[in-house]
Amino acid sequence: MSEKERDIEKEDLSLIDAEFVNVAQSTVRSVEGGHVEMQQVGALSIDGDRVEVTQGAACLIKGGDIRVNQSINIITAGNNTSLESSLAPLVLSRSDVEMKQSASCVVAARRIKAENTRSIFLLAGNVEGDVQTVFDWKSTLSLGAVIGGLVGFISLLKRR
């Protein structure tokens, strides 16, 4: 379905392709568009220049400016990304990430602005605000050395 503007409510669709997409209370396999707004939607992949998801679930969100509110995403990749009260195991951004009351496993960006956020691994040039990480760059390096040493030791034992 390719159109200029598309409003969808309470439907199950496989593919949506439009310049302006507004989806509510639906399930969609793939969404592609310029400006994508979704409320209470489950989707496998979302791709757009500007993506806004509220109370949704998605496997992959990719785009320029991404805003996610009260949602769960597996992979979130964009230029500028904003998460509020959300869970996103992998967040990748070319520029800025803003996280408020959110959780993530891995966050990688040039600049991260956080407020009451938790993360396991955090990779950033500049971090502002309150973020609790399990591993910073020093502990990640130490963990990598320990795992590398264990793998090397086990490979030596297997040769005998």
| Broad shape | elongated
Low-confidence stretches: none
Strand order of the largest sheet: 1-2-3-4-5-6
Radius of gyration: 19 Å
Kindly give the count of domains.
Answer: 1
Q: Quote the beta fraction.
A: over 45%
What composes the largest sheet? 6 strands, parallel
Number of helices: 1
Compressed to H and E, one letter per element, the order equals EEEEEEH
Mean pLDDT score: 90
End-to-end CA span:
62 Å
Helix and strand composition category: mainly beta
Tell me how many strands there are: 6
Helix fraction by DSSP (H/I, runs of at least 4): 10-25%
Entry summary:
This protein is mainly beta and 160 residues long. The protein is built from 1 helix and 6 strands.
